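Attaching the record inline, Q. Sequence:
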Amino acid sequence: MKHEKFSYRSLEEIKKKAAELGIHLPFAEDTRALTREASFGSVTLKNRMGTAPMEGADALADGSPSELTLRRYMRDAEGGSAMIWFEAISIVPEGRSSAHQLMLTRENLENYKKLTEAVREAGRKKNGFAPYLIMQANHSGRYSNPEGKPAPLIAYRHPEYEKLRPADDSCIVTDDYLKGLEEKFAEAALLAREAGFDAVDIKACHGYLLMELLSAYRRPGLYGGSFENRTRLLRNSIAAAKVHEDGHFLVTARIGIYDGFAWPYGFGVKEGGDAKPDMEEPIRLVRALYEEDGLPMVNLTMGNPYVNTHVTRPFDGGKYIPDEHPLCGVARIINGIGQVKKAVPGMFLSASGPSYLRQYADLYAAGALEEGLCDNMLFGRLSFADPDFPKQILETGRIDPFRTCVACGKCGDLIRAGKPAGCIVRDGEIYLRYYREYQKEADRAKNGGSGAAHQS
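Structure, as predicted:
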């Protein structure tokens, strides 16, 4: 289980290592499964490849998209992704993850209309189709930094999270505050529709507020304790947002089905047990979203990138050395998603977390589709490194091995530091200078100076 850096020279070497580790990784013989159309509800996607949400931290002061924001999403559209799941966009000022996080408001709505129109047109012009655009509506909760410094709003006290990011009882939000967010998510859905998005995601993953509530077993009141209470804000916000659905606009969700901590501090684990994944409650939640709340599609993920990055994004380099092999993390994500898919077969599931596998991520994604573990695959870090990967697969059958993500963790450093984020390896002309800024500020902070930017 020892952590190792990626050094595989063939798919056979990866399969051999997986067998040694006793894990299952799906691999197909070819990538044809990724090139086929896919449908949910009245929506048809031109292929089964998409861009996963990756915060760029490059918004203007009022939350509007900048030229860098436009550049990122134009490149995704031109690259051939059939689905572009936009990064977290804050629903309230106090819930922004940084002073440079996107935030859609009535005042800057026209700027978002221009963004979605430009992204769609880029896809049409380059590929003959417009990508399906999903806006991720979010409240950063514990990771709120609206003025560039920590201002946590938490669901409950979490000792693991607070080792790295202090909080106290005064940071715990009230039931009244949470109740008020239901209408804020509804307002975000209306704005998303008016801005030209095809769907809005009520985000509940990666340690942010709605995800934290899913593990609020010991929180008193309407939003803690029972399964019904812990899922109340998510489901009520979805119901409020669905008022704004029409024939062309849907409500969806990105759900963290496991966050890597034992009960009572983790979701997707057994009550009274350890940190081993248990999909009973995630399956119950996804089934309720599908059968009772009318969601035709969701995206599933795992982990908390601030605390246990290896669960969310298995890596070669990071702030710590995990106590497991990266392939175990890749396997955990897809097999957990697969359990949910097989339990709720009618739900269209977008999977996450393939980028660690580099040039073999395409065969892995195709294998996951062939085995019925998901319905399409969203690529996050790879979309930063090589936004043209879908076109490469469609035209040649494979990803360009010289343009893949190398799982160095540098884009994550930029995201958490609130710096404009992208790939410093493959897109260094744009992003290397921001990483150097981050390094200088981190060094000053380490040496007792001012200007610290890293937030973890």
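Residues 175-195 form the longest helix (21 residues). The CA atoms of residues 160 and 352 lie 24 Å apart.

More tomorrow.
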